[in-house]
Fold:
Amino acid sequence: MSNAILITAATALVISAPILTLFSQGRPQAGDIALVIAAPWGGNAARIAAQAGVQEIAPERAPLGILVALNSAQSVDRLYSNGAWLVIDGKKVLELCSI
Structure:
């Protein structure tokens, strides 16, 4: 029984490690690449980025996420005010996804 719990916990940790790495990063700064994630029940990420005045940088889009270049210190605040659910470090996403 205790081995099953240990194996389950280890598996969960290994599976969630890349996601935890993304969330442990600091807030993206001006000039950085950011991943904008829209709420599943809200608008799409491309619309949020356009309303916030930031530029898309990747040729591909995910249904709920988009990579953008942050052009000012207020870019992250504008993204959140336009409906972004999360704004995280996009460089780490590029490394994980090998884009």
The beta strands are 33-38, 55-56, 65-69, 84-89. The CA atoms of residues 21 and 92 lie 8 Å apart. The helical segments are 2-23, 45-52, 75-81, 90-97. The longest helix spans residues 2-23.
